[in-house]
Amino acid sequence: MADIGNLKKGLGSMETTKFCLVGAGRTGLVHGRNIVHGIAAAELTAIVEPDAQTAQRFFEEVIECRCFPTLGDAISGAEFDAVVICAPTFVHKELTVTAARAGKHIFCEKPIALTLDECVEMAGAVEQGGVLFQMGFMRRYDSSFREAKSQIDGGKIGEVMYVRTFTRGPGLPPDWACNPETSNGMLAEVNSHDFDCVRWLTGSEIVEVFAQAGTFKCPELKQRYPLFYDNAVVTLRMHSGAIATIHGACPVSYGYDARAEVLGTEGLLEIGSLRSLDVERCRRDEGIVSPQSLSWRALFREAYLEELRSFVDCIRSGKQPAPTLEDGQKALAAVIAANQSIREGRPVKVTYQP
């Protein structure tokens, strides 16, 4: 494998794509490392992080660079071509509009925003600014999910009848993400990927959802935030007629788990594994033991790198990135409908526009 550091040095006068990272927390660390160490044509020139301890951790683990308290300050004080938004969901709209008006290309982590109205405003700013926008649905760049999509599109399992997908996280997200009023709840923060995967794998739109939820692991959060839940099951009806189910749970005690199953008229696809390595140990006193995945950062390490590498390629070539802002909006519309279904105890039609 080529040494990335040497590749970067070898670029010489070739222009690199300069980035500003907005939010240097858990996901920001992943994207920051990929920009600095994984993509030869990319350069990190600034971060936006108001919390001094979080910024210091980033400097120690990734690289020291200029740090600003707001994106507006960074636009005024640093040179960059694009932003990577890893800040809380409730500021995604404001950050996207600010970046687009300044002519900066935008990579935005999921979920896209809190409301469909915010999505419309974001889309207008992106179009008016003439900039590129890519959603952070990294499963579309995972080799196993991409192979499954290729086989589905190639007719290897016939027509899709049913999709089952789930995401189960080992630990709780930050406090703001536990409050549905500032995050849209677990279905947004944890399962946005699943809603997008169902649309992507079936090649069809979600028309109706029915969801049920419960709180089993974190009753104290339910007391603080009455709409909180830590488990949810969603049944989806697709425009094609296919049926899908999504399960979300967070926290779970056994590790990080993100898998899918696609049943077609001519066969079955199973995507992903609970194992972190394809190794098993067997002993009489232990039974069969295999290491499990403990983190989304490890399980989708290559997918995170590939999605950002694709974004850089689009900036340099002028191609439109994927997934799109519209993909983010459609996943959010399904999440909003599912939360409404939980509250009202009935199936809800999915509305993609405000």
Output mean pLDDT: 93
Within CATH, the superfamily of the largest domain carries the name Dihydrodipicolinate Reductase, domain 2
Rounded to the nearest angstrom, the radius of gyration is 20 Å
Number of helices: 15
Order of neighbouring strands in the sheet with most strands? 12-11-7-10-9-8-15
Give the CA-based shape: globular
Note the main sheet.
7 strands, mixed
The helix/strand order is HEHEHEHEHEHEHEHHHHEHEEEEEEHHHE
Write down the domain tally: 2
Name the beta content range. Answer: 15-25%
Structural class, judged by helices and strands? alpha/beta
| Quantity of strands, as a count | 15
Explain this structure.
There is one protein chain. With 354 residues, the chain is α/β, with parallel strands linked by helices. The protein is built from 15 helices and 15 strands. It has two domains: 4-136 and 304-322, Rossmann fold, CATH 3.40.50.720; 140-299 and 329-349, Dihydrodipicolinate Reductase, domain 2 (2-Layer Sandwich). The chain has helices at residues 4-10, 26-38, 52-61, 71-77, 92-101, 116-129, 143-153, 175-178, 180-183, 186-189, 192-202, 219-224, 296-299, 301-317, 325-344; strands at 17-22, 42-48, 66-68, 82-85, 105-109, 133-136, 160-168, 206-214, 231-238, 243-249, 257-264, 268-271, 281-283, 287-289, 348-349. It has a seven-stranded mixed beta sheet. The protein has a six-stranded parallel beta sheet with strand order 3-2-1-4-5-6, with helices on both faces. The longest helix has 20 residues, at 325-344.
